[in-house]
């Protein structure tokens, strides 16, 4: 299991955000026992900053009986209530305020966290205190995937986008508690291999984007070096999309991340590399067009869980390295190992 404090770094880089030093110090010193406690801490600290600065505002449609016309007159309810003879009308109008879709989602997330038993009483109390600082006009939205998807379609500033990612991760592990109306239990998202594979891949790619200047960092589509009698047959070839490509004038590294429990698998009483992973990387290397003066290399990177691995080969004329990254060590060691890997 990845230590909870290190999850902070993985998530920050995966979400393309340089870790904040003051926040890192508070995370590093806190005795977190569950990932939910870390996510709640990040949600609270980010929400406090938004409240100090002032929650974002947007125009929301309001409907009310008015003595003066404003916006659009809604004839059907106005006539049904016989309001015209009273000098009144039902109007629909836009009003600027903090009751935006994002703020509604944030309030809904805090409402759910304020009731769960998966947080300490002190943290639940702090959640309720921060929720109480919201303007009364902000109405909680259901803390659901549909609401998250709706907010995801909006163009949010960086601070709100980070909190949206936190909310999404919290909601992903949320399950209703049986026989406990209104309460929610939460799974440890570190057990979700597909999710963690995506986090690990994005973490590595964005770490190199933010922490070094030698290479251009991208995820690239590789074109098959193939021909066919009928050109339409080429459309059936699968896409080749690298996890991370690091490129300079004299060196190109195709780095494929694999979030697996082990880099080796037992086969006939011996440990072997996972063949599909190696075949995939080999296909990437073999289909790269040659550039004079540029060394092409391949790396398979696994998180170290059961044992450390560092294997080096030459395949098809290209250096290939299969290596593990120890995510259980202090963050400084993780950063050092990643930088040394492409040195």
Automatic annotation (TrEMBL):
GO terms for biological process: DNA restriction-modification system. InterPro entries: McrC, McrC_bac. It holds the Pfam family McrBC. This is 5-methylcytosine-specific restriction endonuclease system specificity protein McrC. It comes from Hymenobacter jejuensis.
